[in-house]
Automatic annotation (TrEMBL):
Coiled-coil regions listed: none
InterPro entries (alphabetical): ATPase_AFG1-like, P-loop_NTPase
Phylogenetic lineage: Eukaryota, Viridiplantae, Streptophyta, Embryophyta, Tracheophyta
Presence of keyword Nucleotide-binding: yes
Record-stated family: Belongs to the AFG1 ATPase family.
Protein name: AFG1-like ATPase
Keywords, ordered alphabetically: ATP-binding, Nucleotide-binding
GO molecular function, one term: ATP hydrolysis activity
Highest taxon in the source lineage: Eukaryota
Length: 504
């Protein structure tokens, strides 16, 4: 009976979607004959159209449902056309660079997923207003006695590729096109795992806390969009298989970006044999798609406009710039609340700016949780004394990579002194393949001339390119303008809140 009801819902959803698409297409055919055009019939769309590279005509007419509406909980919501059409709009308006076939190929996959989700929205229980809380509690109760699984009829998507290829931008473009009423969540992988560990701590003593945590997450969000999927921590590696087995069994759909192919995740990690079943599960529940591109879009920005200083004796300059950023405020030691009851000591902080010597932030046993806590309170970091990384300070290099990831995710601003350019900082960090390709010893190149500080580490070797790329972008004029706009928006929102509080 339950299967029959799900079938009827799927059929109804598909029928409604096709009806909307037909009416929308009919309306456009009356306005336009043959060519893709804007609302002004005299102006053709930039790029001669989506039809050049998008989808077959039968699919395009199904996708473009901008004139249709979906009613959820009595509220009329205009449906959107999907990531592919939005991408073309941004190119037409000059917001994005045209001509990257690799990004277009990825967008086809995202558009396919978008269409599948719209068609199966009811079957996947995506709409939070249509989903019954009572049914959710009932499912949880019955699962205590009768093992159940309800895999989603829609497969997710795992996007991987080199740095700066636009993976995060494309996933965000897809995510923002989905209806606001859907149970969806977009989060950085580091932040997601911190949330998982925090929930596990709360459910300590339960027979299977991972099952309870997976139940909570899947009740909150059916569609999980995880950015920068990267497994380096053995604690994360050991729980991922069981966690996602429960999530997928509860109907969750995963969309993820990563620098690593699934088979390369946690390569060389401790007890990796216990992690391998997760890779099989990932391949079973997601379509794997590689983004290939020779362009690093982060490095196309106007670099060398920021606060990255290479001078060895630049300590006084950093403090002077830090003082300039905090203005009339006085910097004093502060304390930051971190998840699971921990606290991070900030040497100096004021007006949203925090100052740290490198060793205080990256030589101590800190991690992503501490850095997320830091950037929840501060928007600017002054970091003094970033060293050249090698075998002797590999742990600090891992922390610095995580710090940059968290800072970039939170659109933080970096003011720092370093012993070299971003590229020079990681010159001694290489992958196993890089090490094997190095020139062999000869009579003129003996062992005594080898670089004994060379660090051969696959995870760090792959992560370094992302960090170099992000440091380059964070030092650009465009990034700093976005940071300033974010601060202005936050200030405006705070002022509005204060005004409403006074009126109340």
């Amino acid at each position: 009976m339950r299967t029959f009801i799900l079938y009827v819902r799927q059929f109804r959803s598909a029928f409604q979607h096709r009806r909307y698409s037909f009416l929308s297409d009919l309306s456009r055919r009356q306005k336009v004959s043959g060519n893709w055009q804007t609302s002004d019939a005299s102006k053709p769309l930039h790029n001669a159209g989506i039809a050049r590279y998008l989808l077959p005509v039968s699919m395009v007419t199904r996708n473009l449902v901008t004139d249709s509406a979906i009613v959820a909980n009595g509220v009329k919501e205009v449906s959107r056309a999907g990531p592919l059409v939005e991408y073309d709009r941004r190119i037409a308006e000059g917001e994005l660079v045209d001509g990257d076939n690799c990004q277009v190929g990825t967008l086809r996959e995202l558009q396919r997923l978008y269409d599948d989700l719209v068609m199966s929205a009811n079957a996947c229980s995506l709409d939070r207003y249509a989903a019954s809380e009572k049914a959710g509690r009932s499912r949880w109760l019955w699962s205590r006695f009768i093992p159940q699984s309800s895999y989603s009829p829609v497969k997710g998507l795992y996007l991987y590729g080199g740095v700066g290829t636009g993976k995060t931008m494309l996933m965000d473009l897809f995510f923002n096109q989905l209806p606001d009423s859907w149970r969806k969540r977009r989060i950085h992988f580091h932040d997601f795992m911190l949330d998982v560990h925090s929930r596990l701590q709360r459910h300590k003593g339960v027979a299977d806390p991972l099952e309870v945590v997976a139940g909570e997450i899947s009740d909150e969000a059916v569609l999980l969009c995880l950015d920068e999927f990267m497994v380096t921590d053995v604690a994360d590696a050991l729980i991922l298989n069981r966690l996602f087995r429960h999530l997928f069994s509860n109907g969750c759909i995963l969309v993820s970006t990563s620098n690593r192919a699934p088979d390369k995740l946690y390569e060389g990690g401790l007890q990796r044999d216990l992690f391998l079943p997760f890779i099989s599960t990932l391949k079973e529940r997601c379509i794997i798609h590689e983004i290939g591109s020779s362009i690093d879009y982060r490095k196309m920005t106007s670099a060398e406009q920021g606060f990255y200083f290479i001078e060895k004796d630049a300590s006084g300059l950093v403090k002077q710039k830090f003082q300039y950023l905090i203005g009339e405020h006085t910097a004093v030691p502060q304390e930051v609340e971190v998840v699971m009851g921990r606290k991070l000591q900030v040497p100096l902080g004021a007006n949203g700016c925090a100052y740290f010597p490198f060793e205080d932030l990256c030589d101590k046993p800190l991690g992503a949780a501490d850095y997320f806590g830091l950037f929840k309170k501060f928007h600017t970091l002054a970091l003094e004394g970033v060293p050249i990384f090698g075998l002797h300070n590999r742990s600090a290099a891992y922390r610095f990579v995580t710090l940059v990831d968290v800072m970039y995710e939170n659109k933080g601003r970096l003011l720092c002194t370093a012993e070299g350019s971003p590229l020079q900082l990681f010159e001694r960090i290489v992958t196993i393949a890089d090490a094997q390709n190095m020139a062999p010893r000869t009579s003129s190149r003996s062992r005594k001339n080898d670089d004994f500080d060379l660090c051969v580490d696959n995870e760090l070797g792959f992560a370094k390119d992302r960090t170099i790329s992000r440091l380059t972008e964070m030092n650009s004029k465009e990034y700093l303008e976005q940071h300033a706009a974010m601060l202005a928006e936050k200030q405006l929102s705070q002022d509005d809140g204060d005004e409403k509080a006074l009126q109340a």
